[in-house]
Amino acid sequence: MGVLNVKPNFAPMQKQLTLLFLLFFGSIIHAQEPVAKDTVVRYANIGYDAKGNEVSFLSDTPPLQQIAGAPKAFYSYYWEFGDGTYSTEKDPKHTYKKTGSYEAKLWATNNYDTGKPPATRPKEVVINEITKTVDDLATMTDDFMLKRNREPMIDEEMVMIVSYKNTNNYSSSGNIHLFYNEIAFKSDNFLEPEIRMHHGETLIPTDVMVYNKDHNPTNTFLTSIENELFSYSNQPQDSTKKTNLPLSMEEAKQLYRSQKSISFENMQPGEERNLFLTMRTAPEMIKDTSAIISVRGIYVPDNNYGDHTVKDMEMEIVTSHDPNKMSSNGVLMNYRLVRFKTLKYKIKFQNNGEGPARTIRLETDIPDMLDMSTLKLEDQYPACPICPKEPVRYSCLDTTFLKNKAIFTFKNIYLPGTEQKNVQEKDSTKGFVKYSIRFAKDFHKQKTKSRTAIIFDKNEPIITNYATTRFTPGISIGIKAGYNYYPKVENAQSYFLSAVVSPYKPYRFYGQAEFSNSFNSNTSTTSMDQIVDDPRNGSIQLQRTITATEQKSVNWEVPVLLRYNINNYLGIGAGVQTNINVSNTTHNNVTVEYYEGDSDQFLMDSKTDTSSEKESFTNWRTGILLDFTAGFSRLGPSLGARYVMNNKTDFNYWQLYALWRF
After folding, report:
1. What's the pTM?
2. What is the annotated signal peptide range for this record (predicted)?
3. Whole-number Å distance between alpha carbons of 566 and 121
4. pLDDT tens across 518-546, in order?
5. What is the second-level CATH architecture of the domain 43-208+240-316?
6. 266, 144 Cβ separation under 8 angstroms
7. Which CATH class is domain 475-661?
8. Nearest-CA neighbor of 640 among 572, 567, 576, 578?
């Protein structure tokens, strides 16, 4: 289309853009660097003293490594006795019902400690005689319970306790289905579990599952609940009773990619049993410490009927075992569908004092992009009613909602302290508040951060971690069309059509890639006169040579930009691009005219020669571009102007366009 002999100096601008790209991508790489692992292994030992079939166990744990600024560090304990029973006491006593050899296991969890939980080797316990009889005591408040000994930590193991009970007045056989590794997360959070069964249960291959068809198809509701390893005497154990078993199974398979199914037989009326699963977290599990993950259990007490119980157990990812924690289920959300999502937050706390807490105040930050008017209290412990306006003497929970803060205050309660005399069960010192909230009408695609100040009576506040919410980038496809203006090229015409790919409705900085197909043409005419001898009579004559050139080309361009939205209506960007002529056709018409004498008054003769030349994939160029848009900068229609500076001997040009993002 033409050549300019102007070579602008792009070195300063290229250096600035290079620095901008390095800073941008460098921050991403730094954010993805792995956290250094603690390689120091500590051990906890098991001791015991057996008198007949009555055994006293002793835990020998290594010294704690206190987290600076945290409450006093302590251990919490979880024991398995090898006969299908367990305990959470520090040094429990257990009476075995039968003689034999049992393998006792211990998991000690180091709360407010900087190291890994100590490893423990199982201990063999041999019972040779029965000197004491023990009656079975009913401990379950529901027919199906999911519990755990600790929160999941990256590259560590936790134990899930599955407790089930026969509430029928007859002996029955049934199944338990466990689902884990949510499809919502890209990678698995747990590896293949180790399952310990003590009552003749067997694993069922998932490809031969048969569901009972006796069900009520109208009863298809589903509610998620959580049962933690709390020993609260008044803690409610909610259950979701359903009858459409095939539907419940299909719903679970839509949410989880891993499944274990277990069959049991001949369970007597009122009998309670436990299953134990060692769940080791995967190295590639989600790293967000404010994320909530879950497992689901489906309990079918009798294979002859479709009645079943569905329960979910929610867990928070941790990097250290801190009972004071805030978490959210909004770790990764689809921005296109977020209008239909309700965020759920959970604040957990623990009294680490030497006496009971009477008043506990939770001051929680609420991000601007959330609608305070939609905040709803979902659950809490200690369980108590909402406080009325007038002062009362009974236990209650006071709720105060400010512009960007929610305050939950437990009044007139009794929550034991971990250092309190005669408090053996550490879980009895814990509590929580769970609430839900929706997004406001106008909000941007931003990460949010919330944390809570926990105040026990008149003590100094304990500040939790940040509970964060994030959005997946999403994909936005755009269509772009416009006109290229070449200031230094005469009679040039250039139109283009482009496809644009960028994140869906980005807030500020984002990357954008394009593919453009340009259709270009330009014409030029030159004329040259010269006096030559007339071969006919030896006189002189005027010879005029007229050259008309027409060029047509199809050009591919691939720009890559780093863009910034100033607000909802204005955006700027800078980047680089490469382009190449896919096809280029040149038509030349050369006309030679002869005139009598030395003037062009009398045309004597004229002849024209025509030639064409075709080339493909030529004239490869790179360049730097600056871009500006006005309209709807994040989604929808906008108008834009772009200036492209080529770093070769080709021309610079303006690009004027209309863009619509979907």
Report:
1. 0.62
2. 1-31
3. 60
4. 999 888 888 998 888 877 777 888 889 98
5. Sandwich (2.60)
6. no
7. mainly beta
8. 572
